[in-house]
Amino acid sequence: MKRFKRHGHESHRDRLKQELYQFNKTLEHGFPHQPSALGYSPSLKLLAIGNRSGAIKLYGDPGVEFMGLHDENAAVTQVHFLPHQVELVTLLDDNSLHMWTLRAHNGLSELLEVGRFMLTGPPGAPPSVTRVTAVLAHSSGELLLLGTEGGHVFVVEVPGFRELEERNISLEQVASSVPDDYIGRRNLEHVEALQENPINPNQVVIGYGRGLMVIWDLEKQCARQHIPATQQLESIWWTGDGSYILSSHSDGSYCRWMVGGEDVNDEEEKSDIPYGHFPCKAISKIVQVPTEEGPPFLLFSGGMPRASYGDRHCITVIHSKKHVALDFTSRIIDFFVIRDGPQHTGDPTALVVLVEEELVVIDLQTEGWPVIQTPYLVPLHSSAITCSHHVSAIPLKLWERIIAAGDLQNTHYSKKPWPVTGGKNLAPDPPQRDLLLTGHEDGTVRFWDASGVCLYPMYKLSTAGVFHTDSDPNDNLNQGTEGEWPPFRKVGCFDPYSDDPRLGVQKIHLCKYSGYLTVAGTAGQILVLELNDEAAEQSVEAKVVDLLQGQEGFRWKGHTRLDVRDEPVLFPPGFQPFALVQCQPPAVVTALTLHSEWKLVAFGTSHGFGVYDYQQKNNVLVKCTLNPSDQLAMEGPLSRVKSIKKSLRQSFRRMRRSRVSLRKHHVNNAAKLQDANARLEAELAEMELAPVQRKIEARSSDDSFTGLVRTLYFADTFLADSSHNTPSLWAGTNGGCVFAYMLRLPPVEHRAEEPVTAHPAKEIQLMHRAPVVGIAVMDGHGAPLPEPLEVAHDLARSPDMHGSHQLLVISEEQFKLFSLPKVSAKMKLKLTAIDGSRVRRVGVAWFGSSRSEDYGESGLMVLTNQGDVHVVSLPTIKMQVHYPCIRREDVSGIASCVFTKHGQGFYLISPSEFERFTVSTRHLVEPRCLVEAPHSGTAVQHRSPPERCNSEDAESAARRVMEHALLNDEKVLQEIQKSLEGDQMSFLENHVKNAVA
Amino acid sequence: MSSQHHQHHQQQQHHQLLAQQQDSSSNSSSSVILINSRPTSRMSRQQQQHQQQHLQQQQQQQRTSLKLYNTVVEVKSKFEAEYRRFALKRNGPDGFQEFYHLLQTIHHIPGVDVILGYADVQGDLLPINNDDNFHKAVSSANPLLRIIITKREDEPVVFGTNSLQRRKKGLGLTGLRPTGSGSTHSKNKPGLMIGLPQNFRQISSIIDVDILPETHRRVRLHKHGTHKPLGFYIRDGVSVRVAPQGVEKVPGVFISRLVRGGLAESTGLLAVNDEILEVNGIDVAGKSLDQVTDMMVANSHNLIVTVKPANQRNNVVHRGSKTSMGNSGSVGSAGSTGSALSHDSPSPASQSNPITASNSIAEGDSDDDDDDDGDLILENDCLVPYESHRLNNSYDTNLNRDSTNNRSPRSTVARPLPQSISLPNSVGASLTDSSVTTTSRHSEIAASNSRESMREDGNVITL
């Protein structure tokens, strides 16, 4: 009976768990890592980016995004939308072609892979014959022209990927008609480019690597015209009126050719090497866009003088007398121009450039061609991210002030709206305003609007101004002196070079109610900042705090303290620093917390911790936690030069290895196999030389960095007796030690004069000595104490101060609950001893039930070193759910994880992208958007919707057939036979493939 | 000799099991008291001390102890409930016999057959039964020598690691000794005193022999009480398993190296290339090397590893009488004598259920729970009325009285001092006549405090 009851209870709990927790990876914020291809559909107004790990992402109007991942882990080399349709084709590095579509389902569009295809050449042909180098999605929407390394052009019907062998354009066909006097006729090389005549869809131009271009008539299946360029071809552009072809070449030249009728005009009409005289680099892509009135826009990438500017990544824009070489900070992947007008054939409005590290959009309509700020795809890593901090539910007032401060910083951006506007964002408005703050290596803190689907940059704070640094702030303004040739203009914000690594931001804490912010950095600097809507000129008072407290025999070998500017500095509106603490020794700050109600900041390093009163600008407490025998912590980061050297050597080795494998990528399979074998052998040999072994030893007080302060926590709780609550500070160290200090604050009316004092109250040395990663106090109801000022702003229930409080200490190995004020262990949950995983990140979160609006529970969100996310209930500390979240090898991803107060989390999946996940059923931010097929009448007749419906029906019919076939139904087998003979063959093939896979 | 040794092992283990069971059943009632063993820390002195500045105090302590150290040894002996204090010349010519008679005289128990034991610096109860260990006891007294006298017909004293505490715990807990068959049994039959197994401190044991396949070995390493490092390394490797389809290779974790002089090496129970199958009862299959490492480190104070020894020739051979032995197995030929011993041992261990497969793990866990609760907590509550302090029921009343005594005179101390140090249950049931060591520099205690280090310093010991 009893057991039955208990069982009932458990199933109730299970149901509750289902209502509370659900794991979803919802979004990727930021800029795709290692982008490799760009595509754009003018009709859908969607842009697509493929990357080297096989992901494809579509973006439209802010909030409209789709993401797909190819099963093959190969780089996406080309992306082409089928004109006027919702399909797109991707070409991967492994020579496979993939068809994707945006299918509406329950009123929302989904990106789905609907087919894959690999060119099969004639038997016995070398693989180069079918290696695709150029793709043209024909405007009819039914054909795909595939140019290959062997020089052939294959014609494939889409979306079914049916080869139309009779329409293929073989190299022989073309070569036979090449004029005899053409120098390169013996070897035309691969197909470099395919372009369709914008006014006559039956004509395409085929550009061969050697330089020859052939205008081919698809209907008559014959060459119309030969264009005998002699330079290695890079790209072709057919002008809008169909009368000219532009070709760009590897010597930095471009040519314009007249498309004649029958009178074969072999001579180029115009040839130019724009940055000529000296040898130039190739012009990799050229585009010419006419304007309604006036000269056309000419845009091309590359072509820089090899010797002097060969390392620049430039796109040149020429429009009548205006000539600018846009100078990007990373390699250009691709670019396109967005044009006005209902058919997207009007004036150019914007230039969209995908470079390796960011997406830059230039407004071509506004004088001076300013940059349009991107609402998404923002390079998070414009300087490397060193830490992040999330603040949920920002009060509107603060939100508006931050936006206002940010707007003042963005005056140089174009006022034009974002030009990529495809799709409809159907996601409801985010329920609250969330801020994500990222700290960067260059000493900046960036504020991002993390409430919704787009991670939108709001404001950028720089802390470098407080200090003397080597860099001259005017450096960047010296660009673009008059008369310089080429006329460079720096664009983009990706700037990975830090002037001084000591500026790096390590910890951030923002109080959303008071607008106080504290930022701590690599050289032991802790800045306290206040939000001010006006610019102010002020000097920042620095206070040096000696954390060693007279510890003898110490010699710091790390970096020196930052040099503070004595003179007043002009700070722009926004967060302005007014107090500075500098730790001595200037080790990196490892823990930081701010209590805006008490006006105190607590900070910790590997040497100890302290409390600073930012109202009186006075230090309240210093505690040295350093073990005198801990040499590593004493000497600072430089003493580990050896290991850095070693890791450098290793990474170089790895780089060389990957480079070798890259270079050999195109070599045939046998060589590849050999290479792989050799690598395996080398790895084995390496393993034998130094087998990976792990020492099994209990932690001891003599371990290194036991004194490193891992966590700091302010709490108003019962420290001395159970009738008087007092302010307190709790600190946890790497050596499993917790220090508690009782803080005595003067009454509010004397807060400015009377000193704040701190007295040691308790110390807990955890027996297992694992690093303490989190501390929390729970009130009499078992609820975590609210944040400072939260109650004052009526946003939280005031904590229960009658029942007994509990102290939760979270170490890397276990969760342990102690009673207060008398500290005695009450409960614990062991993690490491059971499954070998350790706590890396922990945060208190509130989980609302999906079923009843008013039910919710507090819980701990935990990320382990195995990459699993756990939820642990409070105050009972019981494991609730766990989900695999991050690969355990992804150490930087795990280290970068940050939790929100509502059960969501962010972690870096690459230096430039945050993955967003949620464990809550209620708080789920995911893209919900709809893309409708364009129904515009173009000059070209394309398939009508019913037809597409039919094809879809056919497809599903084929699928049904397959399902039956699996049941060995004889009749159906016959049906299959029939359909195999029919034109659904490739579809079926695809499904078979899918089914097998 | 070796077989004798094994017997000792077994017997000892029984006692330990007893203690552990009591531990687990009575977490709350066990208690810990820390004392300062320096002579100056006697009650009256201490009160004075507390009023002084602590650095001074320490210096003074040092001085006094040095002075005393060279001349005489302070002895405190206990027989049943009675204490005697006297001084003994450190370099006195006396031997064991003289000392034995001296104690009999002092305690007025001439003619009573007793066993002598003393508490060493690490808090372990060690025997005095010959001139050698008597001199060892005198010389190691630092500076107080605690003698515990037991009637020989009483239950055999358990010497060894934490034996004091365990015994005390058992007594304190049960109050009246349960008159189970075991104890009455032993009272009637004088114990078979083969040597003194108690002279050995247990550092490892083989457990669960009866439930494990012969090819496997479950080894328990007792980290507590020793300062030896566990001292071994593990690596990834390939384990060959015999499957129905033939031989299959699966990844496994192996011992790759033993550190010389480490615990693992000194036990002789683990060897290089032994495959690790379980850590404290948890299967490691499918776990990465780092996970296994972390599991072992997390369990390092009471590590139970199940291995498949690379050398299969020394495997335990099953004997019929194993179950009666409470699952303790041993290498070699100690089986039968072991069982004889276990009959003689009057401890409740023999009454308790033989620990079976599943609860040998549970037992391991509970033991390690105890160890885990060994968090050292320093409280500094001088700002508080003292009454509020005595909330912890795990505190011995003895300590409470002491601490109240200590506290009352110094209610106006300017700088707060640590007033109590609570130690884990497992350090447990110790008694003291003096209170807590106070150190003005918190950080010193904090930085170096742990059970081990405290013992190591010899500054604070458990009695």
For the sheet with most strands of chain A, the description reads: 5 strands, mixed
Please bin the fraction of helical residues of chain B. 25-40%
Mean pLDDT across every amino acid position of chain A:
84
| Shape type of chain A | elongated
**Radius of gyration of chain A, rounded?**
32 Å
Oligomer: heterodimer
Largest binding interface between chains: A-B, 55 and 65 residues
Q: In terms of per-residue confidence, which ranges of chain B show pLDDT below 50 for 5 or more consecutive residues?
A: 1-68, 161-187, 320-372, 382-463
Q: Helix- and strand-based class of chain B?
A: alpha+beta
Beta-strand percent range of chain A: 35-45%
Structural class of chain A: mainly beta
- Provide the gyration radius of chain B in Å: 24 Å
Topology, number of strands of chain A:
63
Helix residue percentage of chain A: 10-25%
- Report, as a whole number of angstroms, the end-to-end distance of chain A: 49 Å
Query: Which consecutive residue ranges of chain A, at least 5 long each, have pLDDT under 50?
Result: 473-480, 638-643, 658-667, 937-969, 982-997
Strand order of the largest sheet of chain A: 22-23-24-25-35
Q: Can you describe what's shown?
A:
The complex is a heterodimer of chains A (997) and B (463). With 997 residues, chain A is mainly β. A five-stranded mixed sheet of chain A has the order 22-23-24-25-35, with no helix packed on it. In chain B, strand 2 (72-79) and strand 3 form a beta hairpin. The model of chain B is unreliable at 1-68, 161-187, 320-372 and 382-463 (pLDDT under 50). Chain B is of the alpha+beta class. The chains are: A mainly beta (997), B alpha+beta (463). Chains A and B meet through strand 47, strand 50, strand 51, strand 55 and helix 8 of A and strand 9, helix 9, helix 12, strand 15 and helix 14 of B. Chain B: Residues 72-152 form the PB1 domain.
